[in-house]
Write a structure and sequence with these properties.
The protein is built from 25 helices and 27 strands. By secondary structure, it is α/β, with parallel strands linked by helices. It has 6 domains: 104 residues, Response regulator (Rossmann fold), CATH 3.40.50.2300; 105 residues, PAS domain (Beta-Lactamase), CATH 3.30.450.20; 78 residues, PAS domain (Beta-Lactamase); 73 residues; 160 residues, Histidine kinase-like ATPase, C-terminal domain (Heat Shock Protein 90, 2-Layer Sandwich), CATH 3.30.565.10; 117 residues, Response regulator (Rossmann fold). A 5-stranded parallel beta sheet has the order 2-1-3-4-5, with helices on both faces.
């Protein structure tokens, strides 16, 4: 039976037998499940509550707490009662199966385990669990939608009753004031009228029908152009129609009217209708005032329909809050009764924003509106970023009366934009650094080997002294290149399962012995149950030391340096807010100081290579860029929490591993024997590397053929295939690169022995994909002993 690799569901295996754990772990890991393991019932209960797996495979026979009791406790805990449990047992009695099912298990798998049966049952119950969760969520969502719909319907009924009452009053006022209402449909050119047309103009309703052309016939000839210009302005700007002009009554006399029209857009954003009212302002000034009062009351009543999610605020010209809607309550945390009457500047802004607010007030006075981004604070003191639109509201006399403000929360959007831009910038710098490192490694390799050749040929003490100085500086340059490669995520590491507590204890010993006594060292690491990580111990030591040194430098007069570690679960919301994080288990290592902190304007640049705030000669600017490169190469991420004057915390998050290391013991260093005339083919496009490598190999009793590119290498190998023992080949060459050359050589001789050479991790990953013919990987710059050791190992490999 074939099984597709599953999406990463989390499965907890509970068994006190290591071989069973290992077999199930390998099986499920192969099919792309995320697997957690526990060796007893107590550990299983703790892990299930913390990590909330999607399924538990539970052995029955275990010491202390057996499977039945573990299952009972899982089902008694509200946090774990819904996790499906499948018993794994060698017992075949139906009584035991019934007992397990009565406790709450969903299935049994009988030992010895069959892989296909395990996968089939796991997939079946994961699908059932997912369907159950979806059904539960859908039911809850449906219940909430029904409640919300009932609430909205009730609110609308209340609002409808209020609006009906105001509409009746408004109609009465229209009749009393002598208004003409109209609704112009731009698609049909039809105009519907209401109100006292006959009393104002003398025409009956059928006589006035005929659309815009009929209305233009009534407009005074001298006002027609003015009327048409206003119509065209409204259609192009989508603003309010407002005009005073003369119209002809049926008896031939002209009256002056005020026309106020409002546009309505369709779903595509185009103008669909214009509705408004016409008032005879010749004799109806009193009615006009009544109409404006009624209009104002209707606008105030409409404001009660408070359903927008944006924060809508009205403040007077001295920043006193007059209106505060529900959206503002949700956004800022202050209720309307708490906010109204307060000074908006003091309530929503910090002092450093006051200068920007003054500029906004100036723009409002000049143009009547402003829009842009503002930094604000909530009731809880949380900082946020809003997209803000300000509009100056005038009274009946055209004098500024108040300010209407509409704010939308864009904090998450801005955070993600900042992370994305930083990631792009770091990726570009990483690509540049990787290219530079490759060229430097090519330059350092012949220098390193030439120094070692000269040491053997220049035995006098003075020459040896100068050669030692040269070798020391070449190694320093190689270490600097390695730092650049770490930044560009291109360095190769020795990865294995690591105990975080041991890593931190080693760092603790170093900093307690070397840091000033004015700095208090605090360690907060749980004594047990801290998850393991998978990584390179040397690189992670460098990460912690760099962070501790930065913390020390941030506290020149002393303070507290705290190193802590904890298990950390990244959920979907957290992963959405951090582009380098994935849902799953992590160990968070924090290095916290009480120093000077980092200014907001430079916090996004601190991980850039060669960026430093330290004095000249006191920092290279590679420390934090190296930290970021190492942590990314470990599939982790780094967060920074800082406040000027209070300190900084760097949170290093590394993914958890359940892998058990089985590293063998490595043989100690010993003197390598010389060659026995074996023929070695050296392929490299750098002349100096070819020459120095050839000289060193011939000095150690090897025969050497050299090729400057892949095409030459293939030709030489075809001619000397029977004599060549090993091919030493560079990965990055013009015309035909290393991987392409290796593939061609493998077709010529499937048993060929190859040593791959490169200074970039990306090439090392490429080499691994080329199969078993590439026996080892040699990193530039390499020493002569590195070359001979690897060459001897490959020659002796069958």
């Amino acid at each position: 039976m074939n099984f597709n690799k599953n999406e990463k569901s989390v499965i907890l295996i509970v068994d006190d037998t290591p071989i069973n754990l290992e077999l199930l772990f390998d099986l499920l890991k192969y099919y792309d499940f995320k697997v957690l393991v526990a060796e007893n019932g107590k550990s299983a209960l703790e892990m299930a509550e913390y990590a909330s797996p999607d399924l538990i495979l539970l052995d029955i026979l275990m010491p202390e707490i057996d499977g039945f009791e573990t299952c009972r406790r899982l089902k008694a805990n509200p946090a774990t009662q819904d996790i499906p449990v499948i018993f794994i047992t060698a017992m075949t009695e139906n009584v035991d199966k019934v007992k397990g099912l009565n406790i709450g298990a969903v299935d049994y798998i009988t030992k010895p385990l069959e892989n296909e049966e395990v996968l089939a049952r796991v997939n079946t119950h994961l699908r059932l669990g997912n369907l159950t969760k979806k059904l539960t969520q859908q039911n809850k969502r449906l219940e909430m939608e029904i409640l919300e719909r009932q609430r909205v319907e009730e609110k609308l009924r209340c609002h409808s009753a209020v609006l009906d009452e105001w509409n009746n009053r408004y109609q009465a006022l229209i009749q009393a004031s002598g208004q003409i209402l109209y609704d112009w449909n731009l698609h049909t050119n039809e105009i519907k009228y209401a109100g006292n047309i006959e009393r104002i103009l003398g025409y009956s309703m059928p006589e006035i029908l005929g659309g815009l052309n009929r209305w233009l016939e009534l407009v005074h000839p001298e006002d027609k152009n003015l009327f048409i210009e206003e119509i065209n302005r409204v259609l192009s700007t989508k603003e309010r129609f407002h005009l005073e002009f003369r119209v002809c009554r049926k008896d031939g006399t002209y009256i002056t009217v005020e026309d106020n029209g409002y546009i309505f857009l369709d779903s595509t954003g185009k103008i669909a209708r214009m509705a408004g009212f016409v008032i005879d302002i010749t004799e109806q000034q009193a009615a006009l005032r009544d109409r404006k009062d009624a209009e104002q009351k209707i606008r105030e009543q409409a404001a009660l329909l408070d359903i927008t999610t944006d924060a809508i605020i009205v403040q007077n010209l001295v920043n006193q809050i007059q209106f505060w809607n529900k959206g503002a309550e949700h956004l800022y945390g202050w209720m309307a009764e708490e906010a109204q009457g307060k000074n908006a500047n003091q309530l929503l802004y910090r002092k450093q924003n006051f200068c920007q607010l003054k500029n906004i007030q100036k723009t409002l006075a000049e143009s009547g509106s402003w829009q842009g981004e503002l930094h604000q604070v909530t009731k809880q003191g949380k900082e946020m970023i809003v997209a803000s639109r300000w509009t100056l509201v005038n009274d009946d006399r055209g004098q500024a009366k108040s300010i209407l403000i509409v704010n939308s929360d864009i904090t998450e959007k801005k955070q993600l934009e900042a992370q994305f831009l930083r990631a792009q910038r770091m990726e570009s710098l990483g690509t540049l650094a990787s290219g530079i490192a490759h060229d430097l490694n090519n330059a350092l390799t012949p220098m390193m080997m030439t120094v070692q050749l000269l040491e053997a040929r220049l035995p006098d003490e003075k020459s040896q002294q100068w050669l030692t100085i040269m070798e020391t500086n070449v190694k320093r340059a190689a270490d600097l290149v390695k730092q650049v490669l770490w930044f560009s995520r291109g360095s190769v590491g020795n990865f294995k399962t690591l105990d975080v507590r041991y890593l931190i204890s080693e760092i603790e010993k170093i900093i307690k012995q070397t840091f000033s006594r004015a700095i208090e060292i605090r360690i907060d690491v749980p004594g047990q149950n801290l998850w393991n990580i998978f990584g390179d111990a040397t690189q992670l030591h460098q990460v912690l030391m760099n962070l501790c040194i930065n913390a020390r430098d941030a506290m020149p007069h002393g303070g507290i340096l705290k190193i802590s570690a904890k298990n950390f679960w990244v959920d979907s919301h957290y992963a959405r807010m951090n582009i380098d994080a994935n849902v799953g288990s992590y160990v968070m290592i924090s290095v916290c100081d009480t120093g000077i902190g980092i200014k907001r304007e430079i916090v996004d640049r601190i991980f850039e290579p060669f960026f430093t705030t330290k004095e000249v000669g006191k920092g290279t600017g590679l420390g934090l860029s190296t930290v970021l490169g190492i942590i990314k190469s470990h599939s982790g991420f780094v967060n920074v929490v800082t406040e000027v004057g209070k300190g900084t915390e760097f949170q290093v998050c590394l993914p958890v591993t359940q892998t058990i290391d089985t590293d063998g013991k490595l043989a100690g260093d010993h003197e390598l024997p010389a060659g026995h005339g074996e023929l070695i083919l050296v392929v490299d496009d750098e002349d100096s590397i070819r020459e120095v490598t050839q000289a060193w190999l011939e000095k150690n009793a090897y025969k050497v053929l050299v090729a400057s590119d892949g095409i030459d290498a293939i030709a030489l190998y075809t001619k000397h295939q029977q004599e060549i023992s090993v091919v030493l080949i560079d990965m990055m060459m013009p015309f035909m690169d290393g991987p392409t050359t290796i593939n061609v050589l493998k077709k010529i001789d499937p048993d060929i022995k190859i040593i791959g050479v490169s200074g970039l991790a990306s090439n090392h990953e490429m080499i691994k994909s080329l199969g078993n013919n590439v026996k080892t990987l040699l990193s530039k710059p390499y020493t002569s002993s590195d070359l001979l050791r690897n060459l001897q190992m490959v020659i002796n490999t069958k």
